[in-house]
């Protein structure tokens, strides 16, 4: 029999690339059709048959029988004298099926076929990988740290595929060691220099969303819906949730009994503070909830509905703004409103307070703006905070703060 078993010859490709047998057989068929075109100029009168069960490959050539001496193309036509050697019953005009011995292609051609197959399998693997992870964008996957570089970390999934976790997609306090397991969300999949690149992220809002889905069955079941997530990775996150079932408290369900559900997520996110709030269409109430943990006295919205002035007790201003301004920044992203916070003082107090702008002849404007950035827009609002607190919340030096406080205090002493 002039067939050749290719399963053994090409088993290394199947094993290495985890390609299913029918696909492998189709690729082999295409490779040998290419060889036929190179040797005979065409593959139209050839039938390449690959048995996907046994791996046997057979090639048959079809030729028309012509009278002796009238053959114009030996590949397409066969003279009667030659045809009857194959089967005595043949006659002129009939079609002859003749099996081609694969060995006749020669060792060099077989080697070329093997190299072509390797290239084809490589392309197939890349496309499969690209398709596989393109369908998993937004999903959480686990990988093992294989190599650590300055700007990114190389991970391997369960099948040995390479995944990239860039430094910019890591939580600032993330620290990984080789061999350690890491969970992240698939952010994007792209081709670079004909190589599929799977980029992961631990800072994207979808990472927190998927962690919540894992920990809170009500979200997975659709009873609770996450309306919006905003994050400052490693610092704070705010999640607006809504329940379609009046019997379910969405905030309580997400937090869990004694914080049992949220604690695991907080640990995964390197102790990132997570505020879960009830979503509402009431803009004032949403702003109030978004500024948690601060307690709001009153809110004034502008006529265009894009800006809010929030008034709080003096000791609540710093809570509303948060460390490095993170809390108010996230509240603005969550609500879509520009938010300014002010100390809510009584009329009697206002008479004895002085706007910081009044001191522009003694205090440089950029210093005044730095105080206003943290909600201190009057002299008393600055003096009510200690020098240490002001130094922690602003970018000003201790000496500068002391000089400003001295100027402000002197004004009240004169009064």
From TrEMBL:
Gene3D superfamilies: 3.30.300.20, Nucleic acid-binding proteins (2.40.50.140), NusA, N-terminal domain (3.30.1480.10)
Molecular function terms, GO-annotated: DNA-binding transcription factor activity; RNA binding
Location of the protein in the cell: Cytoplasm
Pfam families with a match to the protein in the record: KH_NusA_1st, KH_NusA_2nd, NusA_N
HAMAP family: NusA_B
Organism of derivation: Taibaiella soli
Keyword Transcription regulation attached: yes
Stated name of the protein: Transcription termination/antitermination protein NusA
